[in-house]
Structure formats: C-alpha cells, structure tokens
Amino acid sequence: MTFDTLAQDAARCGPLYIVINAASGRHEEGDVKAALTSVFTESGREFEFLEVTEPAQLQAQANRAVALAKARRGVVVAAGGDGTINTVASAVLGSDCPFGVLPQGTFNYFARSHAIPQDTLAAARALLRASLSPVQVGRVNGRLFLVNASLGLYPRLLEDREAWKQQFGRSRVVAFAAGLASVFQARGQLDLQIETAGRAELLRTLTLFVGNNHLQLARAGIAEIDANAVQQGQLAGIVLRPIGTLALFGLLLRGLLGRLGDADNVHSFSFRRLSVMPRGRKRIKVATDGEVCWMPTPLVFEVAAERLMLLVPTPDDRAEVA
Q1: Tens of pLDDT along 234-283?
Q2: To the nearest 10°, the Cα dihedral for 173, 179, 181, 183?
Q3: 148 and 294 fall within a common domain
Q4: CATH number reported for the structural domain that contains residue 285 in this entry
Q5: N or C: at which end does the chain have fewer Cβ atoms within 10 angstroms?
Q6: In terms of domains, do 153 and 292 share one?
Q7: CB 88 within 8 A of CB 111
C-alpha cells in the first residue's frame, strides 16, 4: 500500500485518539465526553480519550496520542480551542498521522475556516465521514502556528484577555472588553528591522501580526490580495504605523466592522519567509495561536515545509462559515 492509501484507510476506519482539554471553551468536559462517546459508540468506531486537566499535561498527551496513532494506524484528534489544537498539531506534524479537530474554544478560527461544525455532535459525525486535505502551517523560530503569530501589542492583549477570562468567564463580550482595556493602556513602540525576498526595511510599530488564516484576515477587512495569500502558499503580515490611543481605538472599531485594511495607518503584505530583528532586544514575547512565550531574536516567520493532513467535512457536512 502507498502512504496515501494507508492514511485514507486510517482516516476512514482507524481508531481515534482524542486529546480533550477540560479547560477549553464554555462546555463541561463530562458533557462533551458523553456526547462524543454516544456518537462514536453508535458508529462502531474504536476511540480513546486522552484527558488534559492541567496545561502542563497537554504536550505529553499530544505526544502519546501520536505514538498510539502511529502504532495502530489511527487518527489523532484535538478537542479544544485554538491553543489546544496548536499543541496537538505540533505533535502530529511530520508524523504522517491524519489529524481531526473537534472545536471547543471561543473563536475557533482554524475549525471555522475549514467548515468544521461548531456543535460537538455535528463535528463528531462530520469527523467520521471526513476526507483528508493538506493544510498549510506557519512557523516562527520553529514554533508552529495555524491561525496567527504576533509580537508587540497583540501578545499583551492576549495576556490581558486571559486575565479577564479568569475573572469574568469565557465569552466574546469579555474578550472585546479586555481588548478595549489593553488599547487604552497601550505603551511603547517597537523598532524593527525586517527582511523578506531580499529587501530590508526599518519600521516603528506597536505590533507585528502574521496571519495564516484567511477567515480571520477577511473578517478584519485586510486587503484581499494579502488575505488570499494564505490560500496560495504564503503568510500575511500586518503592521500598525505609530499612532495615538484614540486612533488605535478607531482601528479596533474598524477591525470589528471588517474595514481594517482601509485605514491609512495599517500596512499589509504577503511573504513566504520574513526575518525580524527588534532593536535592542535579545528576546521578546511572541504569541502563537493565543499562547504567549518568550523567544530569542531574530525571529524568522515562514511557511512550514510540511503540511497537516487534516480531516475536513464532506460537502454535505460542511458548516456555513459564520
């Protein structure tokens, strides 16, 4: 058998190894497990849950799921938000294992962009009938990202948002309120030397945002040519020219209205590889799919050589993108 045949067979009837994060989204883990158990048992499909109750367990459970799937020609499935999906995908990439997603987060950009249903039962049923499709992955200094990576204001916004969620719960309203608070407290510009396709440039900005998700970019109103670039083997970069607090608040509103690309202070561009050197910094905070960590400089953003073999819904199971 060829690899493609083996992968298709695994996707169609191999055992499912489901890494499930109890902390993701607004659902109770017991309810999610019960719903998934009902669907998979009824179908006769073999499955196993690999539970994550603390963040420190996630990587180990993802690695275990990949080892089991490789040994038994199975499928690795991530049940959680974009951060959980990122970690499991990092373990899967390069393993030749099919990868499935059961979205449980707040925004679920990765799942939505591939028409995966947001309802747990519908997503589980779609997974059982899904077909394999290669999906582009981004990297920054070797770290994978499926949706976006960033430095500057955006990582700060994510940290503030997480603190608000811990206090007020997980919802889009809370996320928006946290974003407003971050904007009004925004301080400090980054001086960056960037280089792509042999061209170097110095720029000052509050944030550098690199997108790998057409849906998120389109929703914000980024220039169509750059939003579409992620469907054509590239990444999209976005920088904000130096602006004051009120102008930054105006940009936030434009983003919510899907008109960010019309703003004079926003510059977007597409690339396959981008080198970034923040002046005077040996390391800097970088966010990847909602998770923030310190990275040494310079930073290299690039399209990964490998692709994820994602299980995507058949036309009948595709969810309408909302």
Answers
A1: 999 988 876 555 555 555 555 554 555 555 677 889 999 999 999 999 99
A2: -150
A3: yes
A4: 2.60.200.40
A5: C
A6: yes
A7: no
